[in-house]
Amino acid sequence: MKAFADSVRDENMLARRRQRVKEQVSAWALLSPFIIILVVFAVVPFAMGFVYVFLQYNPYNVGATQFIGLKNFATLFDVEGVSMSQSFWESFGPVTVYALCTFPIGTIISFVLAYFINMRPPCYKFFRACIYLPSLVSISIAGIIFCNFFGPKGSGLVNSLFGTDIDWLGGKPFKDDFLRWLIILLLCIWSGVGGNFVIYSGVLRDIPQSLYEACEMDGGGRWRKILHVTLPGMKSTLSLTMFGTVVGMLSLYGQPYVLNTIENKDIFVSPMMWIQNYLMGGLTYARLTGFICAAALVLGVISAALGLIQRIAMADRRSGNKYCAGYAKYAELKSQGVELRGGVE
């Protein structure tokens, strides 16, 4: 009898082991396309670029490759002596000013839209789809749409409609290109609000209603609920979207590229435009591959440093929000069946 029980137990263990192996194989099979794409198009290029920064490398003359150590970095930081290095660091100026304007505007618009859509007004599903729909449009298509809207008189819808001849997409950086940056801002908000809107909508639904009830018992109105319940509940999410926005702004490329004029084709308003221009320079800049990779690596380090600073600045403090903590205590006591009257301390 004991031998039979041991046999059944062994068979069950073997069956469970086979099931686990089957599940692991299925999981790896489903993950394999993503892993292959990640390795081929992210890990391998990063490793190659990291090696190139220490070399004098020319992809059209590999035999002449030389190890030069940190010379590419020294050249990159030689702002006064090398014009290319100077233009690289100058490209941080426009995109920094742009990011300082874009992030608060885009965040506020996304939050306001998510807040009101979560009230579930009539036809809220239709409006929710309309808000997210621009996020599915590629930058190239969005650029064509905005160029048709804000093109010169005779081809631009706005100028033709109002009989004006405004140069929306011209001008030099920090001189007379305010309208161009305004159009780029509209494009980024139009195409980027939907992503944060979906994230904020999900987080707003997860905030316990009991916290809002506690705030009401404490005499709080709508604005106090937003300030002491909603925003503290979204703190980590706001930090996440802020990091994504900062990295996205530093790598700004598609929007200013598609909304550009011929005379501005050599003007770089972001580090990514600088890197892309010289990488696509063909034989002219092929010998500077290591130098360009060094610039890309520095850009990555700056992005990581900004993300780390932001994470430290947005980290939860032990004291926390006293109002939100009090409302959470109320919700816990209510779940335990304790009857509370009056305000929450």
- Average residue pLDDT: 80
The portion of residues forming beta strands comes to under 5%
Number of helices: 15
User: Would you list the SSEs in sequence order as H and E?
Assistant: HEEHHHHHHHHHHHHHH
Q: Percent helix among the residues?
A: 55-70%
Q: Which regions have little confidence, pLDDT < 50, spanning 5+ residues?
A: none
Distance between the termini: 66 Å
Query: Which structural category do the helix and sheet elements fall into?
Result: mainly alpha
What is the spatial order of strands in the main beta sheet?
A: 1-2
The profile of the biggest β sheet is: 2 strands, antiparallel
Extended strand count: 2
Q: Rg, please? A: 28 Å
Global shape: globular
Task: Give a written overview of the molecule.
This protein has 345 residues and is mainly alpha-helical. The protein has 15 helices and two strands. The protein has a two-stranded antiparallel sheet. It is globular and about 80 Å long. The termini are far apart. The relative contact order is 0.11. The mean pLDDT is 80.
